[in-house]
Specification:
Helix 5 runs parallel beside helix 6 (284-305). By secondary structure, the protein is an alpha/beta fold. It starts with a helix and ends in a 10-residue tail after the last helix. It has helices spanning 3-21, 49-57, 71-80, 108-114, 237-251, 284-305, 354-357, 383-390, 407-410, 456-460, 486-501; strands at 24-30, 59-65, 118-124, 151-155, 167-168, 171-172, 182-184, 214-215, 218-219, 223-225, 257-262, 312-318, 362-364, 372-379, 422-425, 432-436, 439-443, 466-470. Strand 16 (432-436) and strand 17 (439-443) form a beta hairpin. The protein has two domains: 17-410, 3-Layer(aba) Sandwich (Alkaline Phosphatase, subunit A), CATH 3.40.720.10; 422-501, Arylsulfatase, C-terminal domain, CATH 3.30.1120.10. Helices cover 23% and strands 16% of the residues. The strands form four sheets. Strands 6-5-4-3-11-1-12-13-2-14 form a ten-stranded mixed sheet, with helices on both faces.
Length: 511
C-alpha cells in the first residue's frame, strides 16, 4: 500500500474515532424565563422538577447570563458568538424579515458540523427567513440549513407574531397550494377580523399592541391569510417540539449530534396545553413554566431510555429575563403574589439591569460534571467557542467575535475561571451594562422600557446616564455609588467604549 494512501486511511480512521468520541450536545433555551422562575433558584409558587434534577446532577451557575434582554439579539449571539449590536437589523425580527445570519457566517452548528455532528434546530427561530423576504409558498431559503443546520422544525417568527405555521427544513409544513399563505404589514382588503374589530370574540384579551390578525381566538402582531391546513393550535406547540426532538434524537443516536431546542414557553401569548392549565397559582404564565419543565423532562427521559445520558452535555438557558404584562391580559400581574420572576435582581426583559440578562444557566453531563453551584460568569454568547473546543475545534479568526472559551468553567471544573467582564445589551437602543467582577456599570442612552421609573437617587443626578453598583453588596442594584467611585466609573466607561469600538472582544490568539 502506498504511504500516501495509508496516511489518508489513517486520517479517515482517526477522524471517525474523534467524531465518535465527541459527546452529544443539547442546548435548551427557554423564552422569557427569569432567574427566579425555577425552583432550584428559589421559586416556591411553581415547581420545576426536571430542571431541578439537572441542577442537582450538574453545574448550576448563579452568574449565568444571556447576551441581550430580548429574544432575537440573544439568539443571534448564541449561534454566531458575536454581540448582536455589532450587526444592524438584529432587533426583534418582523414577520417578513430576511435571514439575519448571513450564509458563510461562522456559527455554532457550522463549527460542530465540521467535527462530524448531525445538527438540528427545533422550536422558535425568530431570526428571519429568506432574502430579501420569506417566500412562504415556496422555498424558504436561505434559512437554518444555510448556516450549519442539517434539519429544522420551526415556529418561524414568535408566537405573538404571524404566521402561526410550522416550517420544516425549507417549506411551510402541510401547506395546501390551493390555499396560499399571505403575510403582510397592512390589513388586507375586505373583511379581516382583528383584535380591535372583533375584540369580544377573543379568548385572551390584549393589553397593548397585539390586536391585528386573530388566530385560535388570540389576536397577534401582523396580518396573514390562507394556509389554513398549515396552522397550529398554541396548545399543541410543546408536544410538537418534544415529539420532533424525540424522533430526531432517535434517528441520530448512533453519531454525535447537536440539538438546539427552543420552545416558545413562556413567551406571550401564554397558552399551555389543557393538561397543564390551572396547575399553578400564577395563572397561564406559571402553567407555561410547568409546561417548559415538562419539555425538559421528556428530553432527559429520552436520553435515559436510549442510554445517552453519559454521552450528552445538556445546557439549560433563557433568551432574556422575565416580563409580566407583555401585551396580553393573562393575569400574570394580578396573580404574581410573592413570586419573584427575576429572583433578587432588578429589571427584566428589555433592560440592561441584572434581571434582564442574568437567567437560569445549568449544564449537565452525567458522569463528567460533578454537582456544583458555581459563581463563575458564563454567557450564552460563549457557547460557540466553548462547545467547539469540546469537539476539538476553534472558530475561524474572523468569526465568533465575542465568544470566549469557557469550556472548563461550563463543565464545573475546580479552579476554572469564567469571564472577567461581560457586556449586556437590550434590543439595540444604545443602553448597555458592563459587569467586571463585583462592579456593574449601567449606561442608559434611552429610557429603560422595563421600569416605569428609576429611583429618586438616580433621577436627582443632573443629566446622569451612568450608574455604578457593587453586585457583591448590592445584587439588586438599588444603591448607585457612582458619585463615591468616579475613578471606577471612568475606567469602566472607557472599557465599555473600547469593547464597542474594537468590533470584537475575543482575542485572535484564543484557542
Amino acid at each position: 500500500m502506498k504511504p500516501s494512501l495509508l496516511a489518508f486511511l489513517l486520517h479517515l480512521l482517526c477522524s471517525a474515532w474523534a467524531a465518535s468520541a465527541n459527546p452529544n450536545i443539547i442546548v435548551i433555551m427557554a423564552d422569557d424565563l427569569g432567574y427566579g422562575d425555577v425552583s432550584c433558584n428559589g421559586a416556591t409558587a411553581v415547581s420545576t422538577p426536571a430542571i431541578d434534577r439537572l441542577a442537582r446532577e450538574g453545574a448550576r451557575f448563579t452568574s449565568g447570563y444571556c447576551s441581550a434582554s430580548t429574544c432575537t439579539p440573544t439568539r443571534f449571539s448564541l449561534l454566531t458568538g458575536t454581540y448582536a449590536f455589532r450587526q444592524k437589523g438584529t432587533g426583534i425580527a418582523p414577520p417578513n424579515g430576511p435571514l439575519i445570519i448571513k450564509p458563510g457566517t461562522e456559527t455554532l452548528p457550522s463549527i460542530l458540523k465540521r467535527a462530524g455532528y448531525a445538527t438540528a434546530v427545533i422550536g422558535k427561530w425568530h431570526l428571519g427567513l429568506g432574502d430579501p423576504a420569506p417566500d412562504w409558498n415556496g422555498v424558504l431559503k436561505p434559512g437554518p440549513l444555510e448556516i450549519g443546520f442539517d434539519h429544522c422544525f420551526l415556529l418561524p417568527t414568535t408566537n405573538d407574531r404571524v404566521p402561526q405555521v410550522f416550517v420544516e427544513d425549507r417549506r411551510v409544513k402541510n401547506l395546501d397550494p390551493a390555499d396560499p399563505l399571505w403575510v403582510g404589514d397592512r390589513q388586507p382588503a375586505g373583511e379581516h377580523p382583528t383584535g380591535i374589530t372583533h375584540r369580544d370574540t377573543l379568548k385572551m384579551d390584549w393589553s397593548s399592541g397585539h390586536n391585528q390578525t386573530i388566530h385560535n381566538g388570540i389576536s397577534r402582531i401582523g396580518f396573514y391569510t390562507g394556509g389554513m391546513k398549515a396552522r397550529f393550535r398554541d396548545e399543541d406547540l410543546a408536544d410538537a417540539w418534544v415529539n420532533e426532538s424525540k424522533r430526531w434524537i432517535e434517528a441520530n443516536k448512533d453519531r454525535p449530534f447537536f440539538l438546539y431546542l427552543a420552545p416558545q414557553d413562556i413567551h406571550v401569548p401564554r397558552v399551555a396545553n389543557e393538561r397543564f392549565q390551572g396547575k399553578t397559582p400564577l395563572g397561564p404564565r406559571g402553567d407555561c413554566i410547568v409546561q417548559f419543565d415538562w419539555c425538559v423532562g421528556e428530553i432527559i427521559k429520552t436520553l435515559d431510555r436510549l442510554g445517552l445520558a453519559e454521552k450528552t452535555l445538556v445546557v439549560i438557558c433563557s433568551d432574556n429575563g422575565p416580563v409580566l404584562d407583555d401585551g396580553y391580559k393573562d393575569g400574570a400581574v394580578e396573580k404574581l403574589g410573592d413570586h419573584q420572576p427575576a429572583g433578587p435582581y432588578r429589571g427584566g426583559k428589555y433592560s440592561v439591569w441584572e434581571g434582564g440578562t442574568r437567567t437560569p444557566f445549568i449544564t449537565r453531563w452525567k458522569g463528567r460534571i460533578a454537582p456544583v453551584v458555581s459563581e463563575e460568569i458564563v454567557c450564552t454568547v460563549d457557547l460557540p467557542t466553548s462547545l467547539g473546543a469540546l469537539a476539538g475545534l476553534t472558530p475561524a479568526a474572523n468569526g465568533c467575535l465575542d465568544s470566549m472559551n469557557l469550556l472548563d468553567a461550563m463543565l464545573g471544573k475546580p479552579g476554572a475561571k469564567g469571564r472577567d467582564h461581560l457586556l449586556q445589551q437590550d434590543n439595540g437602543s444604545g443602553n448597555f451594562g458592563l459587569r467586571a467582577g463585583e462592579w456593574k456599570l449601567v449606561r442608559l442612552e434611552k429610557r429603560d422600557k422595563s421600569e416605569a421609573r428609576v429611583s429618586k437617587t438616580e433621577r436627582a443626578i443632573p443629566g446622569a446616564k451612568r450608574f455604578l453598583y457593587n453586585l457583591t453588596s448590592d445584587p439588586g442594584e438599588t444603591n448607585d455609588v457612582s458619585a463615591a467611585h468616579p475613578d471606577i466609573v471612568q475606567r469602566m466607561n472607557a472599557q465599555l467604549d473600547k469593547l464597542i469600538s474594537d468590533k470584537r472582544s475575543r482575542p485572535r490568539e484564543q484557542p
